[in-house]
Write a structure and sequence with these properties.
Elements (H helix, E strand, L loop, with lengths): L18 E8 L4 E6 L4 E15 L2 E6 L2 E5 L5 E5 L5 E8 L2 H4 L4 H12 L2 E2 L3 E3 L3 H18 L5 H18 L4 E2 L5 H19 L7 H8 L3 H12 L3 H19 L4 H7 L5 H12 L3 H9 L2
Antiparallel strand pairs: 1-7, 2-6, 3-4, 3-5, 3-6, 3-7, 5-9, 8-10
GO molecular function: DNA-binding transcription factor activity; sequence-specific DNA binding
Keywords: DNA-binding, Transcription, Transcription regulation
Pfam family, one: AraC_binding
Length: 293
């Protein structure tokens, strides 16, 4: 993921085979998955250790043998528990791949899930039969993806259909509670704020201005933003600005001062302090490291 943006712009797989698999190993790291969202759906499961994951406002502590499902468009992230190690795998795929047939199966079950009119459990694990089945399918998909099987795309698609079929047959597919629409509307507003930040990070940004973009009062906006993003609005703005500055220092012939001003930070002492807190080096050291490559 390009961490300069909340919306992930990476393509998972190819247009013909829109699925990607990922293995993440984290040791001594606070944030193990930056908050982000993408149009694709995602299954993530913990192989070892434990961590806290977030989908929207919901917080889940996951340990080995447990996982979660993230619908397309949902903001999600992950955080360590006391800096303890955590290894997890993820499968990211576009639901269009499964619903393109537009047959009865798609219109009854998968399209409602894709639209958000229906839901499956956010968390699963070995404690239930259906959770064990989901994990089995996911591990088979991961294994197939890494294999040289000439028919692996077909087998993987069949595994995904079987996974959803097992959830449906075990009564884990349900119509969404209309009350959830409130959370969805709030998330859409926050996505608009984040897009505004990304487009205007070089300009003066204040909490009242961002609250106005969201159409909320300052107090309500600040509470909701921190609940979803796990950062205050200005902490998020400054974090994004530092990531953007780091990108400029890597890719453009630009001085440290110019990079700071470009992203809207004219207090160079504060800029250097925030930069060091993220990259564990000064902006100048960071720039020299990439200039020497």
């Amino acid at each position: 993921m390009d961490q300069r943006h909340l919306r992930e712009n990476r393509r998972h797989g190819t247009p013909e085979f829109p699925l990607g698999t990922y293995l993440q190993v984290h040791v001594d790291s606070d944030t193990i998955l930056d908050n982000h969202w993408h149009d694709e759906a995602e299954f993530l499961w913990v192989m070892s250790g434990q961590a806290v994951f977030q989908i929207g406002l919901a917080i889940y502590k996951l340990s080995e043998g447990e996982g979660m499902y993230v619908p397309g468009g949902e903001v999600h992230g992950g955080y360590s528990l006391d800096f303890s190690p955590c290894t997890y795998k993820a499968i990211v795929f576009h639901m269009d791949w499964l619903t393109e047939a537009r047959d009865g199966i798609s219109t009854r079950f998968l399209q409602p899930l894709q639209r958000g009119d229906a839901v499956i459990p956010s968390v699963f694990g070995r404690k239930t039969l259906w959770g064990e089945l989901v994990l089995r399918h996911l591990n088979d998909i991961y294994r197939l993806f890494e294999s040289e099987d000439s028919a692996k795309e077909l087998r993987i698609k069949a595994e995904l259909y079987s996974l959803f079929a097992d959830l449906i047959s075990h009564n884990q597919w349900t119509r969404r509670d209309p009350a959830h629409a409130v959370d969805t509307q709030t998330m859409d507003r926050l996505k608009g704020v984040v897009s505004y930040i990304e487009s205007n990070c070089g300009q003066p940004l204040t909490v009242p201005k961002l609250a106005a973009v969201a159409g909320m009062s300052v107090g309500h906006f600040s509470r909701v933003f921190k609940s979803f993003m796990r950062k205050t609005p200005m902490d998020y703005v400054n974090h994004y600005r530092i990531l953007q500055a780091a990108y400029l220092l890597q890719t453009a012939k630009i001085s440290v001062a110019e990079a700071a001003l470009e992203v809207g930070m004219d207090n160079f002492s504060y800029f250097s302090k925030k930069f060091r807190s993220i990259y564990d080096c000064t902006p100048t050291q960071f720039r020299k490291k990439f200039r020497s490559l």
